């Protein structure tokens, strides 16, 4: 490579958001390199699809073991690259190990052929791999987002190409190395260090069978449009503005305790976080006082320290965008109960913030606030709470808090319009349950039996006697 070629190379920079220091630089892969990887992964998948599921499972269990054995190292990379709180990073790695074990143990059953009664001699359905799947993944859960796609994808017999967020390319390369160490074929899972134009080229390549993306609404629209041009299967997991409904018979102390975690874990940077706290009149003042008091106890600072709960936002521009949303909401008439000001000093920090008096038309009402900002919405009763909860363009998940479980189940099952609903629990993902949304939160499902069947060919076989 000539000096001029090196100087012309696009460099991706990973910046520690707590300090502003450079973590690493990664040169963008050339189109020729990308083409080589595409061919290598395609060829690896053609062989992998014929490997028995039980043999795939042995490697997936090894990946689970490696995650647990090296969880401190992996968690530290997340802390360095996107400001993940250290203890939360370890919990994320442990969850990745769980999803690997889950699919290692369940994939054979999930993908078993199913006999169907017809007038044929024998008719049945098989679940065959689609091929190479492109995954476009975000920075907020740099390991979990990848593993919840990769574990079912690999167990189904697919190959995987990861286009991770540029600020967490170190995590991407660690994951690639981990799968190789676990015994998976060398090129079956590869990370692509590329930008948007080359990602589009990869999606259009005939050796890529499908795409999954976890990202913003705009990014999801763009990827879905490109996938539509080439008629490729697409799964979208996009933003959320999840309601957290507190009814008059709720356990307020428990709702506050869990609501704090549901809104502020990962420094508020979660699509499935509780973002709109919709509280009925009878308990609004009590909930507000206790919630704000609990928020005041959350320490912001160095994400490597055990007593810190609010670390930096992943990038300065993201922090500044969040501050702008809050300011626009306040300018429109909302009040700040705590927080709401960008602190002085280095790093992409934003304090735990609670907004009240938020009305329709305000930024905090209609936009996703991707950071440590909770919105309190005062409603009169259950009916208004449900109306407000569903009055959003998003539909990822939601929760309802009540001591009456029959009432809670009715609301969760039939009245919250979202991909998931929880009673007396915060919204969260679990390998045993499907995860995904409706409306602007996307379509398709990850996890559970539904997740592994998203990227397979549901293949009908009809056999008649000669």
How would you summarize the topology of this molecule?
Layout: H1 3-8, E1 11-15, E2 22-27, H2 31-48, H3 53-69, H4 71-82, H5 86-110, E3 114-115, E4 122-129, E5 132-136, H6 144-155, E6 159-163, H7 169-181, E7 189-191, H8 196-204, E8 208-214, H9 217-229, E9 233-237, E10 242-246, H10 252-264, E11 274-280, H11 284-296, H12 316-331, E12 335-338, E13 353-356, H13 363-366, E14 373-379, H14 382-390, E15 397-401, H15 405-414, E16 420-423, E17 442-443, H16 448-452, E18 456-463
Overview of the molecule:
The structure is a single chain. The protein has 16 helices and 18 strands. By secondary structure, it is of the alpha/beta class. The chain folds into two domains: 259 residues, Aldehyde Dehydrogenase, Chain A, domain 1, CATH 3.40.605.10; 184 residues, Aldehyde Dehydrogenase, Chain A, domain 2, CATH 3.40.309.10. The chain is globular.
Q: For the record, give the distance between the C-alpha atoms at the N and C termini, rounded to a whole number.
A: 63 Å
Biggest β-sheet: count, sense, barrel? 7 strands, mixed
Helices, by number, come to: 16
Under CATH, the topology of the largest domain can be stated as: Aldehyde Dehydrogenase, Chain A, domain 1
Shape by Cα distribution: globular
CATH class category name of the largest domain: Alpha Beta
CATH architecture of the largest domain: 3-Layer(aba) Sandwich
- Proportion of residues in helical segments: 40-55%
- Stretches where pLDDT is under 50 for at least 5 consecutive residues are none
The tally of beta strands, per DSSP, is: 18
CATH superfamily of the largest domain: Aldehyde Dehydrogenase, Chain A, domain 1
What Rg is obtained from the alpha carbons, in whole angstroms? 23 Å
The whole-number mean of residue pLDDT values reads: 97
